[in-house]
Amino acid sequence: MKYNISYYLGAIFAVPVALIIGFISTTYFAFDQWIDWFVMLGSYIGAYMPIQWMTSKQYLEQAGLSRREYKYVRKHLSEASPKIKTLMSQYTKVRSIKDFKNVNEINRIARIIYKTVQKQPRKFFKVDSFFFSHLDNTVNLVDYYMHLVRMPQKNKEEMNQLHTARITLEELKRTLQADLRALNSEDFQALSVEVDLAKINQPAEHKKLETDELVKVPVIKKRQEERIER
Fold first, then answer.
1. pLDDT at position 116, please?
2. Contact criterion met (CB below 8 Å) for 197 and 190
3. pLDDT exceeds cutoff 50 at 80
4. What pLDDT does 105 receive?
5. Which bin fits 120, alpha (ψ -120 to 50), beta or left (φ > 0)?
6. What is the 3-state secondary structure (H, E, C) of 91-159?
7. What average pLDDT score do residues 187-209 get?
8. Which residues fall within 8 angstroms of residue 40, CB to CB, at 6 or more apart?
């Protein structure tokens, strides 16, 4: 996330400040060595904290989040990360083309949602149900299904259970697709507005040319028909 850049910026500026202050302390003042180290540490923290705070604040303002909201989103992203990796590992257990298509589509949607929220944390609140329940349900069902479908000598009842699980998996996939649509709804609305504005601001000359073309087409067609009749 861009927020993490604030940590690097703070360190980049704080390190030279601490070295300069430390050099001055050891050269011009007769302090004990441990005091010199303490002065360097204090100058590092004194330079690092305001720079990191200001740069992170600027990012949060652009993202439209408070610091508390951002930490909340980051917490859920951290919890979701190993679940996404678990979904990715299911490829090694696939034994049929149909199951591969399902696992691949589920993985693709889950990764898109995760990556999008990672880049735009504000969108977390549009798909919070994905992080609270949908992802967990999908990961658990896929894991159990992929494990059991490989087991040999399954009886009729077990086959029926696997069939039911496959249908449920399809339903979960549609749920994830709905989450993805909710995630992108704002962008599609913005796209629609831009298209409408582009049409409104279309140059008058361009509109006139289009109108002239519409008028010329039937005229040219009529002339061609007259030549044919002659």
1. 92
2. no
3. yes
4. 92
5. beta
6. HHHCCCHHHHHHHHHHHHHHHHHHHHHHHCHHHHHHCHHHHHHHHHHHHHHHHHHHHHCCCCCCCHHHH
7. 71
8. 18, 19, 21, 22, 25
